[in-house]
Fold each of these.
Amino acid sequence: MSLLDARGIAVRYPVRGGVLQRPTAWVRAVDGVDLTLDAGETLGLVGESGSGKSTLGRALIALRRPDAGTIRFAGDDILALDAAGLKALRRRMQIVFQDPNASLDPRRTVGGSVRMGLDLHAIGTGAERREAVAEMFRRVGLRPEHVTRFPHEFSGGQRQRIGIARALILNPELLVCDEAVSALDVSVQAQILNLLKDLQAERRLAMLFISHNLAVVEHMADRIAVMYAGRIVEEAKRDALFAAPRHPYTRALLSAVPTPDPTRRDPSPPPLGEPPDPANLPTGCRFRSRCPIAMPRCATEEPALAALAPGHKAACWAA
Amino acid sequence: MREAALLSVRGLAAHFVTRAGTLRAVDGVDLDLASGEVLGLVGESGCGKTVLALSLMRLVEPPGRLVAGSITFDGNDVTAMDTRTITRLRGRGMGMIFQQPRTSLDPVIRIGNQIAEPLISHAGMSRAAAAREAIALLEAVGIPGAEAKARAYPHELSGGQAQRVMIAIALALKPRLLIADEPTTSLDVTVQAQILALLRERCRALGTALILVTHDIGVVAQLADRVAVMYAGRIVEQGPVGDIFAAPAHPYTQGLLQSAPVLGRRRERLAAIEGNIPDLSRPIPGCAFAPRCDHRPTMGERCDREMPPALAVTPAHAARCWRLATP
């Protein structure tokens, strides 16, 4: 049994207009996604801005209640839980955001922010909590004597270490990393990626690693799902996806990454057109307005995410 | 020897003086650029690369100011120019594009008129001729339906289209130098690839030199002829793109090239550069990278005490590292 098993997840947002600000249309940010995640596994979720990957990440840990679908975590239907059940569940699933400032209260000491989870769930005595926070600080590469400092006294990389400490203090089983290293410079990004990998191995964490950066996802993930306009269009084990991508969108994404080798200049990319208006998606396949191999069928029928080989799925009539 | 430089910068320093202290954002930069050349200016946030780019056009705003050095562009001293001359230079000599294209466009003026404006005010074109040229320029930057798009307002453009329009405006007067500060950083990777190809093609077609400011070494590898690596307000290494990638001489450049994960070349662990960038509000007497440098323990105290000069690796390639000094 998978640790996380999500079926038919959908999240929609209203587009408001007119003087009354009534919903005039709906953006289907996530539109029927199935996903599983095993203990100790890292699933990479890639896609461009507006693809719905962050919304999906939040929906999976019930930070944003999905409008449709079911989510089972360790067998329990989490959308059926009452408030107390959901609170207990929060211990077991945590998130690290792109901007650690968004999850750190500027007026609270960083030690206080990290400790808050222990306080909320009334875990241990005061002395035990202090010791747990100090130990967590050491583990993420921070000095325990800095617990009394405030977020602004730290660099971006250090603040992300604090964000990781805050997320892991409750010893969760699932960690969602939403663009967790995207705001960091590469030299610091490497420090944080190494730290996340070590922590994952130590704790057998299941990790949903959301990023727009394909190289970072290749580095971190065991399995990868590619998202486009609210749907998963391809899903495969890491090496299979990069060696033999089956969806034309995955191929376009991969070929667009600049090769860091001046002796191998990439050919000019074929024109790909603009992403579709999320409130007004094309009929049939959502990618067809930008697809280099679109056929008449693509305009009338939406391809389902279908298995092509063991563990490799794609939603494309030509795959 | 290299041909006569289009741009020659010597000892340039731009400091920000505030009550809290002096921030040495750019602190002694030497830089040369030939006509039509593409220079990749790389470095991490806070290294001074944007302030350097703004300094070249004298666009640094108070409390920042140029405190030392010279900028020679096309034989003229930019630091000595009066306001009228520098304004003309910014239109006809140098163009600039930024990371957030939409914030550089006027939200209430149709984009065709924004492209036509410099053609009228700087090149003396008639209104009608400038309007026709604006449509031709929109076509040249790959905007479909250029005639209709010329009547659009900036908010009707996607991020990629807005950056195309910025490129059209910046290149309207065929400047000899375009400075592009992180032009694709806010764009998705598929759009980035299109914009980079466009920048390369337009600069080549017009013979315009390009300074591409970026933190992305992949972008540099794809576009640059020459690379300058910046750290803590100084250029720590400079040379032809092939040499910099094949044989980086400065430990910081080496670290930068190794710390980014590369698609298709997966390793279990990344070579991180430990530590953080130094505080630029305190004077750094020696090498600013020494506290993070793997070679510092074997090199000794000279690295902390004395700033290494730019030492030659080959005639066209130099780095500020004491390891290159012949004993």
Amino acid sequence: MAESKQIIEQFTSGEYKEGFVTDVEQEFIPKGLSEEIVRMISARKEEPRWLLEFRLDAFRKWQAMPQPDWAHLDMPAIDYQDIIYYAAPKKDKDRPKEIDPKLAETFDKLGIPLHEREVLAGVVAVDAVFDSVSVATTFRKTLSEKGIIFCSFSEAVKEHPELVRKYLASVVPASDNYFAALNSAVFSDGSFCYIPKGVRCPMELSSYFRINAKGTGQFERTLIVADEGSYVSYMEGCTAPMRDEQQLHAAVVEIIVEKDADVKYSTVQNWYPGDAEGKGGILNLVTKRGICKGSGSHLSWTQVETGSAITWKYPSTILKGDYSSSEFYSVAVTNNHQQADTGTKMIHLGRGTKSRIVSKGISAGVSQNSYRGLVRMGRNALNAKNFSQCDSLLIGSLCGAHTFPVIESLQPSATVEHEATTSKISEDQLFYCNQRGIGPEDAVGLIVNGYAREVLSRLPMEFAVEAQKLLQVSLEGSVG
Amino acid sequence: MGHGKYIDPLADARSKPGMTTSVIAGLTGNLYQVPAGERLELQFVVLPGESRDIDLSIDLTGPGAQAHVKALYLCNGEEKVNFRILMHHRAPGCHSTQQVKGIAGGCAQVHFDGTIVVAPEAQQTEAYQENHNIVLTEQARVQTRPQLEIYADDVKCSHGATVGQLNPDELFYMRSRGIPEAEARTLQMLSFLSPVVPAGREEEVEKAVRSL
């Protein structure tokens, strides 16, 4: 018993390695949120009129909306007037084309190469976002030879306004929900990606988000368009410094998958989760949605959620094209005072559409971890199929694990299956490992990794290694 | 719920002065309390033509208490059948099962909303919930919300829910062996329902299945 207590203590003391602050000169806009601030952000980014109108419209809608409270979360009140909505590192005028060495160093420290060099497991193109601006996008030339557009959102607005205008808010309208409306009003930067017809993207594309400045929030927007028959694998990572105050992160990700295209979207979310007493941390309130627009299209979500004080995130797919398919694989780990309310929505509209949901929750400490999902079979979803599996693992007696799935069927030929289990690591499993000479701590690591394996194996190689390490740090040695 | 913390709705109601047990029952539907070592068994049969709201709140208050709920429904018209089951484990070592199965035809509307809540002190809980539905017609509508809220760690809890149609492979198998389609379908439905048919009511259920 004493031993297991000690192990739990060790587990809760798992350190956050990305918690440093980069000392770089930054420019801010004044604190607070008003029409003026929205105009200011737009002006600073030299945006066209239609985008400003879009922002103002979203802002007005946001003002009329109440903050949602249906999630199984103990959400602190957010003072929207106490946040700086735009912070950018100052550019050194002598070297306008180069990245500030301090920034390069920061991303290097995080393991994100901004120089175009081959990394261990293959080539990855990166768009690095530092607070409110994208500081670098690598491999743009190599990609553009194939006709692939991969750049920061601001550049896309300037260089490809017709594409941005066509697809922006076509999946997540500005009035979709409270946080999406807020993002639409004040979003600063993010990534834009367009894969032309029939092109298979030769490398993994990746966005890396870093919050650095104090008292700011990050509001980025990602738009991915995969044209007919194309393929892309997209990864997203994020970290933030350790601070006592909570910081807001409200992002929107939109994915459009045309006929026969295939998009794989992977996230390893490692925002600062707050300290052991639940002080500080990121409020991660994200809207992610994709649409399988054409027939035979495919969208796959894979996420590993280990950070954030509060996670509110439901990557969803609208299966509009006939015979389109989607998958959602998730591992969500909560520890200490973290809270997560995460899951997915699969809206089946087309005939013969298929979806699969595998969600693995792990809660420890005094955290609360919820799965919330919706599977809807529309009237025309002939022979559509869904399978969902949501498992929860509890470590320690003070945490909670919850499952809130909703299944709606309007089509008799559709099949929906849902199953969920909740349990702790069994004494038998631990005993089995122990008597074979595997220490309790390693045994837990082994069992948890085995438990999450189905999801981890879906991650691109570069991410799988990182995710496994993260899981180990977050969960080393925890015996219930 | 809207909050991340464990809330005991009944304790909240009880703590208000002047509130009697019957009022609490009115608040949360039919309230059953199962004390230590006792066993509660409930069975429901909803036959075609019958709209029903089955609203249960079962409280396992003493160690080792058990509750088992079985329900079956058959619809072929404009019935509205609603299940709301709250299984609240408050004491250690309790065991509960819920099995709700049914067939929706006509333009029936069926709604299942089942929750298992396991309080922090209810260790060694075993709780299982199943809801399986077969939809026969385009107009019928089934919505199911199986939910788990668990605040203890030494638990074995699971739930399963399905919405689907009669298996065409099974149907083909039987028809290829000379069983007429209507009969084969009846057999399929009867075998689907058999785990929840109460003893002594087999004939009644079979008659109802044949009428679908």
